[in-house]
Design a protein that fits this description.
46 residues; 46% helix; rod-shaped
């Protein structure tokens, strides 16, 4: 019984990693969090 629980835990972790990797931002698929945009900020220098 413990082998079945260990196998399902390993398969669940692999599925979770695959699901998170497939929803990454770099593929421009519209899923996941938005990547931050670099915006120039003016700095006053005296």
């Amino acid at each position: 019984m413990s082998e079945l629980i260990a196998l399902s835990a390993v398969l669940g972790m692999v599925a979770l990693i695959f699901w998170l990797a497939s929803n990454s931002d770099d593929d421009n698929g519209g899923g996941g969090l938005m990547e931050p945009a670099l915006v120039p900020v003016r700095v006053r220098r005296y």
